[in-house]
Amino acid sequence: MTNSKIQMLSIVKRLAYYFRIWLMMSKNSFITYFQSRVGALIFLTGKTLRFIFFIGFLFYILKNTGNLAGYSLNQAIFFFVTFNVVDVFAQFLFREVYRFRPLVISGNFDLVLVKPVNALFRSLMGGADLYDLITIPPLIFAVYYLGSQLNPSLLHTAFYILLLLNGLLIAAAFHIAVISFGIITLEIDHSIMIYRDVISLGRLPIDIYREPLRGALTYLIPVGIMMTFPAKALMGLITSTGIFFSFILGGILLFASLRFWNYALKQYTSASS
Amino acid sequence: MNKYLQIFKISFAQEFAYRLNFIMWRVRNVLQIFLVFFLWTTIFADQSKEIFGYNRDKIITYVFGILVLKALVLSARVIDVSGEISRGDLTNYLLRPVNYFKYWFTRDLSSKALNLSFAAVEFFLLYLVLKPSLFFQTDAIQLAGFLLATSLAIFLFFVLLFIVSFVPFWAPELGWGAQYLLIIVATEFLSGGLFPLDILPIKFQEVLYFTPFPYLIFFPLQIFLGKVTGLALVKGILISSLWTFILFYSMKKLWYKGLLVYRAEGR
């Protein structure tokens, strides 16, 4: 076997190892959700109602105005559904971030650091959210149904999927930045909520915002790239340069967040442990 | 009276103990306004346009009004009551010579005072940045109606939130769920805190106006904008007062029933 093949095999083995750990952690996390079934029902009802209310709101506005920044009713709803896909997937995968602060404050993060698992992986993806998992299938169906009505080409559909993945990559970068910031300042709860409020500006196409906010939402806090670009790509409204630029930015943000995480780890004092 | 004045002062000071938390919370409120502001600005790009009975000035005033009314009506410390009941901390208050409702209403007022002062600053800054053209009501009757409707809204939300906070008497682990449904879902959409309710179908509006939710934000703002006048204003105030009375009475009943099953778990 050549060296490259051995290396490839080792990477695949490592990935399989982490996938098994993720499955195990997710299973444990899901068990805790089953403890309160009524709670689960309330949460899902609330989530569904919010989704329906917002779509209803868009529907009645656009029924009277005809379009929103040049987008039809179907397109505007598709932007909203795409926003939800990125947001719900990010919450499903990175829910553990919301539970990170107690670990740092109590010093129990030490126990994560000494385990033979990457501490970032454990802190970021250690507790998948069952409620979000339940909402994923209907969302995918909504994307498929609404997307197919926009008659996209195969290439545009491929761009849409790739840009969605890029959006998730950027979401991961933000979550990494939030927990890194949390190690240094012990502030996580509001940082993550502010992140959520900022990305919620992507519920509608960023074309509705005025400069310089629109520029900031594209390049500084790339909500546009995360949420608006995938939907625009499906509609064939993004150039190949725009798509290329999106991936570059996604890569840069992930790289920067990983550097920030390494820096934050060096600042961890293990206080209270 | 002096007792509650002291509670007001202590509660006000407590809010400053977690300054970063409070500032972050206000930042979140401003961010939420951005989406709605730009959405309506885009829809009313043509300044002469009139949709749903609103012109551009009135709809932008509605958006800015949301910022102020949310600070006045929806900022409340009563949200902590649910946790106190489920943790058994309520016992501390039952042993003290304070009226539990007056205690929390005083704390609510201190929270509203602080939130309102921040909202005023945010209003000013947003006004400077976004340079919106706003509608100012000058009619004394409409302004008086607005103040009355807002006062009723403050009391109505206090009572509503208290009732929902009693859920842990019977189901200690479900306090958050009831609050989530009332605050996040019902008040966000059904109170007009995101969009004016008169864009919805007439039939839906007719049903909605018989619930307490539109009287929290939508109704006071409609009075301020001069869209509700005369008999409609009186009718709205009456419905709002009736809801406040019914819910206040229900709150008292539920409180006594709740105390009978309260087991001070966790103490």
Index terms:
heterodimer, A: 273 residues, mainly alpha, 12 helices, 77% helix, 0% strand, globular, B: 267 residues, transmembrane (chain A), ABC transporter permease (chain A), membrane (chain A)
Note down, in words, how this protein is organized.
The complex is a heterodimer of chains A (273) and B (267). By secondary structure, chain A is mostly helical. Chain A has 12 helices and no strands. Chain A has one domain. Chain B is 73% helix and 0% strand. Chains A and B meet through α2 and α9 of A and α2 and α9 of B.
What oligomerization state is this entry in?
Answer: heterodimer
Shape of chain A: globular
Pattern of helices and strands of chain B: HHHHHHHHHHHH
Number of strands of chain B: 0
**Most extensive interface:** A-B, 34 and 34 residues
> Can you give the mean pLDDT of chain A?
89
Question: How many independent structural domains of chain B?
Answer: 1
The percent range for strand residues of chain B is under 5%
- Which structural class fits the helix and strand makeup of chain B? mainly alpha
Q: Pairing-aware structural class of the strands and helices of chain A? A: mainly alpha
For the biggest sheet of chain B, the summary is: none
Helix content of chain A: over 70%
Tell me roughly what share of residues is in helical segments of chain B: over 70%
* N- to C-terminal distance of chain A: 47 Å
Can you write the helix and strand succession of chain A as a string? HHHHHHHHHHHH
Protein name (chain B): ABC transporter permease
Keywords (chain B): Membrane, Transmembrane, Transmembrane helix
Pfam families (chain B): ABC2_membrane_6 (PF06182)
InterPro entries (chain B): ABC-2_transporter-like
Please describe the topology of this protein:
The complex is a heterodimer of chains A (273) and B (267).
Chain A: H1 3-33, H2 37-65, H3 73-94, H4 100-106, H5 109-113, H6 119-125, H7 130-148, H8 154-185, H9 189-199, H10 213-220, H11 223-234, H12 240-267
Chain B: H1 2-17, H2 19-43, H3 56-74, H4 81-87, H5 90-94, H6 100-130, H7 140-165, H8 167-170, H9 175-190, H10 202-208, H11 218-224, H12 230-261
Helix pairs in contact in B: 1-6, 2-3, 3-6, 3-7, 7-11, 7-12
Transmembrane segments (chain B): 30-47, 59-79, 113-130, 142-171, 177-195, 231-249
Keywords (chain B): Membrane, Transmembrane, Transmembrane helix
Pfam families (chain B): ABC2_membrane_6
